[in-house]
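Example record for the data management plan.
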Amino acid sequence: MPASRVPAIGGPTLSVSPGFSAGMMASGRGGAEFSPEREIAALALLAGCELPTPSLVAADPGGAYADAPALLITRLIGHPPRPAPEDLPEYLIQLAAALLSVHALNGASTMPPYNPYNRLGVRLPPKHALRPEVWESAFDVAARPAPEAPSRFIHRDYHPDNTLWSYGRLTGVVDWSDASYGPVAVDIAQMRLSLVLRYGQAAADRFLAAFDQVSGGYRHDPFWDIRAVLDLLPEDSHRVLDEAQIPLFEEHLATQLAELGAPTP
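Corresponding structural encoding:
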């Protein structure tokens, strides 16, 4: 079950997780144990961030009082994003700009290091794959050493549904249970994948261009886009990629493989 957040009198919310990260479930990944200590550490670092994020009020990491790991956090205003087509460019710029203060946080090395969810022990394409050869090429690329990149504080599960909005302005970023110390490209690639599935490849490319603009120059390696897709695998009997989205996954992979000059039969 994903974490639940129950409004409390006066504005804070109570976040309770019975064992799974809400971000993992939203992204289609499962099986990772929720660590309240990890989110507590992340929220402590985020207290010095310009970006609106929840503040920790109280914690019951062992579930001694709430019967499950529980965090009491302040409530942020806003709703999930629903931009009109004409508002998409500004929406993408704000999503890109929000990452700057996150990646600049001090103390990032105190967070757990980034590790891929998929260790590539099982190299199987999705059940509904239409172009299995594309997935095989993607596995070959992902098996290479990761590109060298400095590590920063990263959200690790940065996608639209972990952002809040009000009157066209971003009012907060939530669900820091996967926060890590790793390459900023992980956040860029995760958001790009989510944008591909929701708005198409062009929106993902515009987001990348926006981040390049607001950051003063950023060179993205498509390796991380491929990694973001493969982190949704392997499937199991309870978790299968949406058949309707398979063409979008495969086109995204094929585009990134072509960027790298990798074979795309």
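Summary line stored alongside the record: Confidence is low (pLDDT under 50) at residues 1-28.
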